[in-house]
Structures are given as structure tokens and as C-alpha cells.
Design goal:
The structure holds two protein chains of two kinds.
Chain A: E1 39-50, E2 53-64, E3 68-72, H1 79-85, E4 96-104, E5 107-108, H2 116-122, E6 123-126, H3 137-148, H4 153-167, H5 171-174, H6 187-199, E7 205-209, H7 217-230, E8 235-239, H8 243-249, E9 252-257, E10 260-266, H9 267-272, H10 277-283
Helix pairs in contact in A: 3-4, 3-6, 4-6, 6-7
Chain B: H1 5-27, H2 37-73, H3 77-80, H4 84-98, H5 111-149, H6 158-198, H7 201-206, E1 210-211, E2 226-227, H8 230-261, H9 264-278, H10 282-308, H11 314-321, H12 328-353, H13 356-364, H14 369-398, H15 401-406, H16 424-432, H17 441-474
Antiparallel strand pairs in B: 1-2
Helix pairs in contact in B: 1-2, 1-5, 2-5, 2-6, 4-5, 6-17, 8-12, 8-14, 9-12, 10-11, 10-12, 12-14, 13-14, 14-17, 16-17
Classes of the chains: A alpha/beta, B mainly alpha.
Protein name (chain A): Phosphate transport system ATP-binding protein
Organism (chain A): Brevundimonas basaltis
GO molecular function, one term (chain A): ATP hydrolysis activity
Amino acid sequence: MKFKIFHAPDGANSGSGDTDTRVLTPPPVLHSADPDAPTKITAREVSVFYGDKQALHDVSLDIPDKTVTALIGPSGCGKSTFLRTMNRMNDTIPGARVVGRIEMDGEDVNAKSVDPVLLRARVGMVFQKPNPFPKTIYENVAYGPRIHGLADGKPELDGIVEDSLKRAGLWEEVADRLHSPGTGLSGGQQQRLVIARAIAVEPEVILMDEPCSALDPIATARIEELIDELRERYCIVIVTHSMAQAARVSQRTAFFHLGRLIETGDTEDIFTNPRERRTLDYITGRFG
Amino acid sequence: MTWFFLPILIVASIAAWFGARGLAERRQRGIHAHSRPAQFGAWALIWTAVPALVVLIAAAVFGPAIEGSLIMGGAPEAVSELDPLRRGAFFGDARAIGAGQPATQIWPAPYAELLPAEGARVAGIGRMLDLGTVVLAALAALLGALFVFSRIRPDMRARNRVEGWVVALLFVSSAVAVLTTVGIIASLVFDSLRFFASVPIFEFLFGTQWSPQTAIRADQVGSTGAFGALPLFAGTFLIMLIAMVVAAPVGLFAAIYLSEYAGPAFRATVKPVLEVLAGVPTVVYGFFAALTVGPAFREFFNGLGALLVGGPLDGIGQYLMLVQNQMALVAGAVMGIMLIPFVSSLSDDIINAVPQSLRDGSYAMGATKSETVKRVLLPAALPGVAGAMLLAMSRAIGETMIVTMAAGLAARLTLNPLDTVTTVTVQIVTLLTGDQEFNSPKTLAAFGLGLTLFLVTLALNIIAQRIVHTYRQQYD
């Protein structure tokens, strides 16, 4: 199967002028893509095997910097697997094998010379279920800087912790209880704590694997707001089950189905004018 | 003889099962019945077997007493006047003669003449009682079966009746387990109280002199008996400490390796091997300690002593030259080896129970495996691991065979690992083995020690389970 790798947005097609009777309820798209954003991550012919089972088939995708890219698709379609190839988290799964080429800033992340430990410091990750460590809020955020030796002395570490919590929008809620356990926070606060933990090591890319699926709508709205703010500084890739969420937070969307990348493009285009029948069926809720 | 009835009862019960099932099938043909035929069968089986078994068990429990009073009631005057011990012996021989066997002793006049007649009478009473038991049991089985067969109707709730019996069976099983434990504790407490009546509890807990030999006859000298258990507690504690120094780090590190680093193939081989090691009888570890480790340690320390003698450390050298096979270090080290699989198996389960999401979170931050283990997994697993250590400690305290064989018998108040020491468990063994009279402080001391040991391990286990329990809740 052959795919157009980078589908350049054309302004003429972005509005709702061409009323499409096939689309039942296209979710509203909030942010347009920046066509000048440089490419941060390039994936070429990436396949992933778990033992004998192939979970991902020849995926080629360009992910622009300072942009939110949403990976959508039904369960088991390989979107999380693809996400995990970008920080080599698949290395931690016994029997997992990745073929193909993934470049970050032109550098092959699977090269022998790349230490996955250092790669993961550059590519932060937020998981489906909030997973704060059983430590204090402060220690959770200080975890990365301590491991990677980013702070000289306590005052600098304090600064990093405060700054990260502020950027994650959690500072005001926890400033007076930094030394109480992180596991005592609410689900939404825990997820923002985990985001603060990820950005404390100054990553370039943040991968989010269904970050809101365990949260209530208000906490979800808060995280989505935060994702939009973080877009200014980071390249963000988010896996989501919610079409509405993809439409709200992302500028680029890639649709996966049965381990293959079906279609990719500007979120506006994907949601208003998909080229593939399967994409249309999925975003209008006919399957998935 | 009543036990010949058992096979008959089994056959009858099975017959009741088939009969009730067949009858129920016929009676509920074409009707939507509440219970299935097999449930009527099970119900009939229970009601046939259980009443008869109750009769048999009652006969086994109360039979001897009834038989005894019947025999005594008809005894000739000469026999009744005998003292109880002789009387018992007489009826024992009468029973033997009644069964056609020779008497165990030669009885003087009037008794020798009385024996054959009494033998016949005793045998008759026995036969009568046996017959009565069997008839009663058969009657009970019959009545039980009739009870069920008269109630086989389509609307009879045999399903729920059988369920009730199942619940009763399960309840009785758990009650037996609990009640035996309560009985053991009661006997411990009761006999300990008798012990503390002769030895003050303060002297027992804090006395430093342990020499439990007491004078049996008034003219014996040199065995006054001293029951200060402090040296035993010290010895127990010392050996437990040495065992934990060996088992805690090795077991924990083995668990970390198995759960975090080992490949599936290695893990699949080593884990079962470790679990087999945990099942090796402690007596095997005991003679490994006594015959292999003990002499090896002695030779090592003797050799070291020989090197030091004459030098600036002459005193230490002299001491080391005299070290014996049996010492706290040998028993503690071997006990530690015994506990390694126990600690590692428990810790491995606990570390595995830490959610994968925490590992993922840590790896995604760019942490290495050892950083993840040290900073995330161990803190998360710490309460559980602490619980595992406490359980290991309580095992070390209760362990008997290794210390009996490798630590010696001298009750010495010392913390020197090269000394022979003795433990609470070893003393209980020595106090209660061989011929003993069961009302001297010497034997009763064993119950005092047992109660103390029980309370200590109970406390450790309760603390350990509390810790493990609170830890479990954290991730559910």
C-alpha cells in the first residue's frame, strides 16, 4: 500500500463552504496547522513485531515541530505501538522488534550509537493512567532532573520543580503541599503532575498515550488547555480515542486502522474532507 | 467389629443416591420441578450416611465408658476390691482370655479361677455393645433414607437442602482448623500457668541463669534448677540476626534480579528451583550445617587463630584456636541459606505486583533499570518487602532442627557468634524428649518457653500481615 506522506494543506479546502452530506457530525476543528512548521520526527516504513505477530505495517509519517499531531483509530490499530517506537519504549517489551527508520532531527533513533536512556530524556511520555511514583509531589517532579543531573544544588532543583509545575498548570493547587504524596491528588491533578514530571527534563517531544481516557470531562478540558499551551514549546504527539478531542487539540491527524496508516493530513481536512472511505466511516462513528 | 459396617454403609448410601435419583426422575417426568434428580440423589446420600456416621462416632467416643461401667457393674466382689490399676490389668487379661489369647501375667488364687468366667462375660458385653452400635447405625441410616424418600416431590427444594449441607461441611472444616488452634493455645496457656506457679514470671523472663535440671529425689545434689530464659532469648535473637544478615540482602537481590533483569528462560528455570529449595526439610539443612559447614568454619577459625598466636593479637589467636564445631555463626548462616528462597520468592511476588505503569513511567523519564529499581520499585514495594522480612524472622525464631544440630546446648548469655548458644526451640526439644514426668517445673518450663515463642511469632506475623495488607490496598 502506498501513501502520500506529507499532505500539504491547501487553504481552499479548509472551510465548510463545500457542504458535505456524507459527513454526519464532523467535530469542530479549533486550530489550523502551521504549514511552515519544520519536521521534527520522520518515520519511514516502520513495522513493529511482537514475537511473530506484526502490530504495525510500513508506517511512514512526518511529524512537525511545535504542533500537536493526533493519532486516531480504533482499538488495536497500532497507534500506541507507533507512539512507543518514537522513544524506544518497545525495547522494554520482551520479544518486540522494530524495523524501518525513525529520525529525530535527522538522527536515526534506532542507531546503535543512540542510548535509549538519553533518547527518553529528550522524548517525554505521558501514559493513559496517571502513574505518579509513590513519592511526594516534589520528588515526582524532581525525579528526572535528579537522574540526569540537571540541577546543581537544592535552589536550582526547587526552581525546576516550581517552573515545571507552573507550566503544567498545577503550581497553584499544590504549592502549599509539595511534600505530600503525589498519589493523594485527584486523577486530573495526577495527570498534570505526570506532565510536569515529563517537562522537568526539558524534552523536545512529548508523547501522550490517551492522556484523558481515565479523567472526567472537567479534568479533560484542563489537560486539553494545557496541551494547547505546551504546543508553543514542544512537538506533541497524542494518541486519542476521542474524535472530538483530536479535533479540539490537534493541528495534524493521522488515522490508523489494522496496523496501517490509512490517511494523514491537517486535522481540518481529515475531519471535513477525508479522502479515504474508512477514515470517513471512523470519524462519523460508523465503526470503531 | 463395628467398622465392618462401614463398607455396607457406603454401598447403602450409593444405593440411596441412585434410588432417590431414579424416583425423582419418575415423579417429575413432564413437570417443571424445582430441583434436578441428581440433587435428590445427593440429598438421599447425605441423609443415609450422616446419621449412621454420627451413631458410629458417638459409639467410638462414649462406647469405652459405657463398656467400663457395664463390666464393673457385674464384677465379682473380689475383683471390685482391687485397686484401680490392678483391676484394669485384670480386665485386660479377662478380655484377652475372652478373645482366646493367653493372659499377660499369672494371677493368684481367687483371680485365676475367676478369669475364664469373667473373660466370657467381658466378651459378651463387648459383642452386645458392638451389635447395638451396628443396629442403631443401620436404623439411623434407614430412617434418614426414609425421611428423604418420603419427600421426593417436584416442588421439594432439594437443591437448597444440599446447598445447606455443603455450607455445613465447609463450616465444620474451618471450625476444626480454628478450634484445634484454640485448643493448642489453651493447653499452652494452662500448662504455662502451672509453670509460673512454681517459677515467678519475672525470674523466667529476666533471669540470666538457665539450668533446668531439678532434683527428682530429695538426696540428689547439684541440680537445683534455674529458669532464667534470658540466655535462650539472646541465643535465639543472635541466630535470627545472623540468619537475616545472610538471607535479607541475598534474597532481596535475587528477587530483584529474577523480576526485573532475568530473561524468561532463566526465570522459568530458577524460580521453580528456588521454590524446591524452600521445600527441603530443615533436618537436611541441619546435618549440612553440623557435618559440612561447622567443621569448615572451625578449621578456618582455628587456622586463623594459629596464625595470630604469638603475634600482637595473641589473645584473639588463643581464643580462635579453641573454637568448636558448634557455634551461633554456623547455625545462623545455614538458616540464612534456608531462608533465601523464602525471602526471594515472597519479595519477587511483591516486586512483580508493583504496577507496570510505574516502570513505564520511570523508563520514559530516561531512567535505567537500576535507577528504576532503586528509586521507584523498591520504595513502592518496601512495605511488602518489610512484611516478607518479618515473616522470615518469625520462621527463623521458630526453626528448630538446624539449631539443635549446629548451635550447641549451652545456655550462654552472649552475642559472640563464635560461641555455642542455645535457643528457645532447642530447649523445648531437650526438655520434652526422653522419659519425663509431666508435673515437674523442668517439663512445664517447655510450655512457658512455647507460650513466649508463640506470642513473639504471633506478634511478628500480625505486624507483617498488617504491613502487607495496607500495601496491597494501595494499588487496587
